[in-house]
């Protein structure tokens, strides 16, 4: 089995010493300073395939499996790898073939183990699972130990895919429940206070900012853990006609990456809803102060995504216009947090803080110190700019592997953050509130804001009148 080591975009010259010239093209591959920078697709596939005396570097395996889906379907790659590993070298003599399979089998198992553990969602495709099972039968021809290892591999993979299916079902159930609750909740009309009971105030549920930030971190880390690395490149790949196939568990291809972005938006609107809902100014001020403290705790934990979602919610117009409420709050702490997430100079302050959190994580003595949850939208944006700024193929048709080393470096850092287990105790009621509590849409938030602190000019008065009329008809 492969040794567990951090992925790296650095090329390991010792691994490829028998294959690599310096500053030359060789066998469809091009190296610069002992680093693979380009190659034909066929040559790169060949470099992935183990032989009796060769096994690819782990960083190369990850980088190629991540990027190859831009050029061919994982099933097509799987078929090529299986053929090159076994069938291509058959000589027709049973004893010779059996001996060769016995020699190569452990390395085939090792490669497939890395594939299934790092990219398990590829195997939701029935054809991928069928190929795995066929490979198990082929290895049984020469090596019983490898056949058993393949069976264990498949069992682990099935457990992962089952857990994924359960997670996606829970997301769907939570979304449906939140939508149903939102239909039943009255519109935010402060002129009818009997319809808006403040018994549901977030402070009545949890008034400890640290515990609240811990529960946010639970949700963040759970949702991060289900994002597959391939989802970062899926958006770059053009849809191919051959993609119209059945997946392993269901026909739908849920994007856990998209679900995570939707969580950020939900949290922002939830923050704004809770601030705008209280009828009394002092209650709104208390909620504001509470969420500022929660944001500070998120920063301390290393949960930058929840931190940014809270700041985004508090900077929405329905909240930011509540001047009388803000005047009752000491905003010094909030101003510092806003500065930390300031987008100027390409988020320089945030990136500095993220590097600090990453360094803390790498030398951590406790699981809490290991937590790093990046501002996810910016992380996606960085990957998007990398993709847009570099071509996938060079003028000679070779794949620009230099680009994919950098892509793999960014995604592998995400994988190291994703694998941390959240150490905090769960608060079931707070978690349920965060996941399913209904939130107001933009119009409802704006009206709640006007009902909290009245319009300041004729345009705002006309807007309030229009919102009251349209929302009362819902």
UniProtKB/TrEMBL annotation:
<feature type="domain" description="N-terminal Ras-GEF">
    <location>
        <begin position="32"/>
        <end position="162"/>
    </location>
</feature>
<feature type="region of interest" description="Disordered">
    <location>
        <begin position="451"/>
        <end position="474"/>
    </location>
</feature>
<protein>
    <recommendedName>
        <fullName>Ras-GEF domain-containing family member 1B</fullName>
    </recommendedName>
</protein>
<dbReference type="InterPro" id="IPR000651">
    <property type="entry name" value="Ras-like_Gua-exchang_fac_N"/>
</dbReference>
<dbReference type="InterPro" id="IPR023578">
    <property type="entry name" value="Ras_GEF_dom_sf"/>
</dbReference>
<dbReference type="InterPro" id="IPR008937">
    <property type="entry name" value="Ras-like_GEF"/>
</dbReference>
<dbReference type="InterPro" id="IPR036964">
    <property type="entry name" value="RASGEF_cat_dom_sf"/>
</dbReference>
<dbReference type="GO" id="GO:0005886">
    <property type="term" value="C:plasma membrane"/>
</dbReference>
<dbReference type="InterPro" id="IPR019804">
    <property type="entry name" value="Ras_G-nucl-exch_fac_CS"/>
</dbReference>
<dbReference type="InterPro" id="IPR001895">
    <property type="entry name" value="RASGEF_cat_dom"/>
</dbReference>
<dbReference type="GO" id="GO:0007265">
    <property type="term" value="P:Ras protein signal transduction"/>
</dbReference>
<keyword id="KW-0344">Guanine-nucleotide releasing factor</keyword>
<dbReference type="Pfam" id="PF00618">
    <property type="entry name" value="RasGEF_N"/>
</dbReference>
<dbReference type="Pfam" id="PF00617">
    <property type="entry name" value="RasGEF"/>
</dbReference>
<dbReference type="GO" id="GO:0005085">
    <property type="term" value="F:guanyl-nucleotide exchange factor activity"/>
</dbReference>
<feature type="domain" description="Ras-GEF">
    <location>
        <begin position="208"/>
        <end position="455"/>
    </location>
</feature>
